[in-house]
Predict the 3D structure of the following.
Amino acid sequence: MPSVAIAGAGLVGALNACFFAQKGWDVSVYEFRKDIRTMKHVQGRSINLALSQRGKSALEAVGLREYIVNQGVPLYARLVHNKDGKTFSRQPYGKPGEHIVSINRRHLNEVMITQAEKSPNVKFFFEHKVKSVDYEKKQLVVQCTSQPSRIPTFGTRAASQDHAEIHVEADLILACDGAYSAVRRSLMTIPRFDFSQDYIEHGYVELNIMANNNKFAFEENVFHLWPRGHFTLIALANRDKTFTVTIFAPFSEFEKHMSTTEDVLSFFEENFPDAFRLLGKEHITETFNRVKPQPLVSIKCSPHSFFDNLVLMGDAAHAMVPFYGQGMNCGFEDCLVFSETLEEHDNDIASAVRAYSEKRVNDAHTINDLAMYNYEELKDLVNRNSYKLRKKFDTIMNMIFPKSWIPLYSMVTFTRIPYSEVIERRKRQDKILSTLLTTASAVAFIGVFMGMFSNRAKFGF
Ligand SMILES: Cc1cc2nc3c(=O)[nH]c(=O)nc-3n(C[C@H](O)[C@H](O)[C@H](O)COP(=O)(O)OP(=O)(O)OC[C@H]3O[C@@H](n4cnc5c(N)ncnc54)[C@H](O)[C@@H]3O)c2cc1C
């Protein structure tokens, strides 16, 4: 059987391990951190994540969909909280029943590692840091951070080993080592490798709302949103009846209004009065004393494949801002698309690797841009009448033409239509809408003109 070496046992690396375990390949995964299943606290990004159709389809392919979805909290609509802290507006995500699922990141990661490890051909090497890729020899350069390393005893062949660095060969190398990928970094000098990285002006801080007498403090099956122009607050329910609450704001706003205890409390009280009451003064103060706002980065690169045997996937290929809830979903879909591409190419690694990159780069760039755009929607547009009107129009058109007129959010979230096609379809919808509006205005104008003409004596001409 062929061998695959995977850099990173995060969400995308662990899911890839499940895919290749299922195919019966020899799988070795090199992860910088300790085994998270043995850790008390896992440092890292968002506590919970919104899982949607693309992610579900990938989990389905490895037999984990039902189990994971049942461990989550379904969310059917956005609940927009007004500034008075008492009134709300509800915006369903799609058709009745369509929903996303709030999932615990750590639990999801642990379940996938355990699932992959059930196969005797899969081995995880924790506390093994991938340093680079030696692209002349097509090897992954790994350093063990806890001695001794167990690498040579299993799976991919270790071409050489000393205490400092281990060179690992494999038929296929998958770089799933996240936004700051060491593999991608070592490819930067390759001619015609395009790369761009943008930090947005916003950062985020995560807080928690505790269960209230073992009950959810808010309605649980909705995505709570407090859009306030250039900053916004969101809350997603967890299975343990808590909510993970995230504030997104420009770093300058954090500095200006949230850098002293007094300031941060009055900022929350003024802008999110209902959330403020449930978060509590003590928790807000403690959190802001303990953590700094975290940055958000958007990364694009092209190609996603190299030397006929290496592929960048997940955040290593396309880290995106979290406002469409698609980073993980897109990364999971990467695993599924690559698996499908391998099958289409009769497991010919070289041609599958090339075909995958050709297919996926455009899609990844599109969802990166859409994620950036969706922030405008979350922080501001959801409150505008033009946005609400467009949403109503899209819903009506979708009822009349269920297959050909699917709203943008639904195409991204509830289908597997390639992201690049999603944007083409949206452009076509915009064109039709603008033709309809122009025609309606022309008809109205002619109507008014005819009315005035038939009453010209009254108007004096
Ligand atoms: C605030 C926030 C909220 C989000 N919400 C959502 C959401 O609701 N829905 C959604 O779909 N996405 C969401 N995302 C995006 C999602 O978190 C990422 O897209 C996803 O984690 C990417 O998975 P990954 O496996 O590619 O990278 P990571 O999860 O970053 O995993 C990379 C792994 O590689 C390991 N690693 C790193 N460097 C090395 C190395 N040199 N050697 C070995 N191992 C290494 C790391 O330890 C880690 O385990 C959110 C992101 C943020 C910041």
In short: The CA atoms of residues 28 and 123 lie 5 Å apart. The first strand starts at residue 3 and ends at 7. The mean pLDDT is 91.
